[in-house]
Design goal:
about 375 residues; alpha+beta; D-amino Acid Aminotransferase, Chain A, domain 1; Dna Ligase, domain 1; Rossmann fold; 3 domains; six-stranded antiparallel beta sheet; 16 strands; elongated; binds guanosine-5'-diphosphate; binds manganese (II) ion
């Protein structure tokens, strides 16, 4: 799960991280009102789940109510396109009006899970503001890392190393950086983050250290224990098909290809996608209906896959263990009648009650249906259908 910058700032501020004063608004008038409260120079920022806003023109410095209105009008009326969005871009519904700061240096600070070392790692860099992936590639020594013991957290010497890594020597500023890193680590652990990032963390011309942009991702499997995060959830920013899938306990991930996949079990889904690729096709999605899939679950899965306009063929691959093949066959027939198949559907069923399932499918005589003998045969057939 992701949250907006303004929400991430809220969590950081609660953990003692210094962030400039700000207001969230949804209209041009409210933006002007927020400006009246802050005054001076402000920054108007689109609140969307994608970075690269600065370069896309969706982070603007303004010195008057008129400029704020103009920036707000532009951002609310135009879709934002950045390297982190699709070419269609995304609509902007909320804006953050924040007190602007005079920046002297931009730093980077983040905590992420390091899967290789199986623990969180704090990363800081003097080269903040830009994308960290580029720094990591072109100048890896500019990133200083400290790995955290899951029970001990951030230790004093690690904090000192990170501050040294940022090249902050002034005593007061070092203290301020230390407080911010500690706050960031606190938020990371408290809310089960997979990423907690401040980019940029800035030193202002008058020597203050402030977080002026924040990004957080959370482990979906831990959301159940954070009512605070559930309140922050913004369904408007999510892919509607993914939401629909989540509601029905299906794990669905849209991909770029044209072959829709409906499979029971994540491992089997991976193997299915591998075979599709092996035979020259491209999967349109990963969809795991779960080992104990029901007729309702399968029907919903068809609904989701068939909504995707890029799907030109579907491969159904079910291994009946706990799930019964005849249940799936019935769901297939119900979906064919209820939703209708406008693309070929190649089916490979194996396992519990497969004989009854085959019989049901044969009797239903659905024109779009193609029965495969095994997985390789199914992959070949569906690839041929969409070629
Ligand atoms: P992102 O591009 O989506 O990551 O948005 P950021 O919030 O990081 O803003 C992008 C850039 O805008 C920052 O790296 C800064 O250079 C600039 N910026 C943002 N806020 C301020 C501010 O208050 N004052 C100044 N001078 N620049 C700012
Ligand atoms: Mn940023």
């Amino acid at each position: 799960m992701k949250i907006h910058e303004y929400q991430a700032r809220e969590l950081l501020a609660e953990a003692g991280v210094a962030v400039p004063d700000s207001h969230v608004v949804q209209t041009v008038d409210a933006a002007a009102e927020a400006y009246a409260k802050i005054g001076g120079r402000v920054v108007v920022k689109a609140q969307v789940f994608a970075g690269g806003r600065g370069k896309a023109g969706f982070v603007k410095l303004c010195d008057s109510a008129e400029q704020v209105r103009e920036a707000a009008e532009f951002m609310l009326a135009n879709r934002m396109v950045s390297p982190q969005t699709g070419s269609d871009g995304i609509a902007v519904k909320r804006l953050l009006i924040a007190a602007a700061v005079d920046i002297e240096s931009e730093y980077y600070a983040a905590v992420v899970v390091d899967r290789t070392r199986r623990r969180p790692v704090v990363m800081v860099s003097r080269e903040g503001g830009v994308e960290i992936e580029i720094v990591a590639k072109e100048n890896p020594t500019a990133i200083v890392k400290q790995w955290l013991h899951p029970h001990l957290g951030l230790l004093g010497f690690q904090s000192a190393r990170l501050i040294a890594g940022l090249g902050v020597t002034d005593k007061e500023q070092a203290k301020a950086v230390s407080r911010i890193i500690r706050g960031l680590v606190e938020v990371f652990f408290k809310y089960d983050c997979s990423l907690a990032e401040i980019n940029p963390l800035v030193r202002t011309k008058d020597g203050q250290i402030l977080a002026i942009d924040a990004k957080m991702n959370f482990d979906d499997n831990a959301i159940f224990r954070h009512s605070r995060l559930r309140e922050m959830f913004d369904p408007g920013e999510e892919n509607p098909l993914e939401l629909q899938a989540k509601e029905h306990n299906l794990s669905y991930i849209p991909l770029d290809g044209n072959i829709g996949c409906l499979v029971n079990g994540a491992g089997l889904a991976m193997a299915t996608m591998d075979l599709i690729k092996l035979h020259g096709g491209e999967p349109a999605n990963f969809l795991d209906v779960g080992g104990s899939v029901t007729a309702e679950g399968a029907t919903e899965a068809f609904r989701i896959i068939l909504t995707d306009k890029s799907v030109q063929g579907i491969l159904v691959n079910i291994f009946g263990g706990i799930a019964k093949c005849d249940t799936i066959a019935e769901a297939l027939i119900a979906a064919a009648k209820g939703i209708g198949f406008n693309v070929p559907v190649v089916v490979r069923l194996e396992g519990t009650n497969v004989d009854r399932a085959r019989k049901l499918l044969a009797e239903a005589a659905i024109p779009a249906l193609v029965i495969a003998t095994d997985l390789t045969d199914a992959a070949k057939k569906v690839c041929a259908k969409v070629a």
